[in-house]
Design a protein that fits this description.
single chain; alpha/beta; 3 helices; 10 strands
Amino acid sequence: MSETETDAEREAGSPIEDEVQEEEDEEKEEQPEPKPLTTEILAESLSLLCKTGNSLSHAYVRVDLRDRELTDINALRPFVHLRYVDISGNMIQDISPLANLSQLLWVSAEGNNLSSAQVEELPFLQVANFARNSIRDTEGIFHPLLETINLNHNQIREVTGLDPIKLSRLHTLELRGNLLESTRGIILPNLHHLYLAANTISRLEDLDTLTSLQTLHLRENHIETLRGFSPTMVALQYINLR
């Protein structure tokens, strides 16, 4: 600090310090007030009493936690018999507690604060909805019975990590309203329906691997040429390029 610097300047701080402080204040403002899932909320949200896997007891298998302003779902961990979980419209950033729900068939986490759809393998999961989050990639999705996944309206720039062997049952992939510039990485020979509208796609790549594809939505993109379509796409019935 120079000898000529005044007390007022020292009090005010440097422009860089002020900028850092402003960023920290903004981050604090963006963080929602913690509101964890409680046993009281769970008690009024459980439904559909069914026999458990061994048929010797009963358990609730559905939970509806939509629009509860929840930030934490750790309280779900002990409810291992849940098959249908709706946590849409909350402020959840971490879905790792779902890994405990080994019987899960259906999950909707639409409209949360997720930056990733990654969760440990769920052996029976068939339908997953992660639309309208802040998800940046497609890594960590490897549920062997998954048939439909909705990743619409996120921040995905490229498709990576979708293993055609692990995802052999996947027939519908929705990626509308993301930041994709190419179709590269969608190498799923058993896929039937692919929705890619409202991205910034200008390059059609890896389409030759989509030998079972029946429906392809590519409207509202930057496609200027049909180069990339392949004669191997023998099952294709509908294309939308408007």
